[in-house]
Design brief:
The chain is mainly β. It contains 1 helix and 10 strands. About 15% of the residues are buried.
């Protein structure tokens, strides 16, 4: 294969990957709509969640505030294949998995020391302008928690 053909094949693959991520309604930056959300008072909040392509993976960056009002930042890089990938920056979790259910719905599990602590679903609206995250599980103190959180696409 000539160098020109190799470069052309690489570019075609790169465009294909970029196109696949661009068409995924989950991709992009999402901002919390607190007025439409049901969060426990004093609970931590994810103010912005960004999904972006990272090679063949997806990088999820979450910025928010903890239950004491301090800023938080955590990151996850992996695939939407149901496998656990490490989380950095979150004292309450060390791994997370996402499973694509259909084009607009994903399931997720948050783990700490191999144990699932939170699980839920992410559903992007048909128009792609908002998403709703429902979750339930236990917090770091062992207390049962649940939430329904709405985000708007930026």
């Amino acid at each position: 294969m000539s160098a020109r053909t190799s470069v052309l094949a690489f570019l075609v693959c790169l465009v294909g990957v970029a196109t696949a991520f661009a068409q995924d309604p989950h991709m992009g930056t999402w901002k919390l709509d607190a007025a439409k959300s049901k969060l426990s008072s004093g609970a931590a909040r994810n103010n912005t969640v960004a999904y972006e392509a990272a090679g063949e993976n997806v990088k999820v960056t979450i910025d928010g505030i903890d239950n004491d009002g301090r800023p938080t930042h955590n990151e996850w890089t992996g695939k939407f294949d149901g496998k656990d990938y490490p989380v950095t920056g979150d004292p309450n979790s060390d791994a997370r998995s996402y499973t694509k259910i259909n084009d607009h719905t994903m399931g997720f599990n948050v783990k700490k020391n191999g144990k699932t602590t939170i699980s839920g679903r992410i559903v992007v609206a048909a128009d792609g302008n908002s998403r709703t995250v429902t979750s339930s599980g236990t917090d770091a103190m062992g207390k049962k928690v649940s939430s329904t959180v709405v985000y708007d696409k930026q």
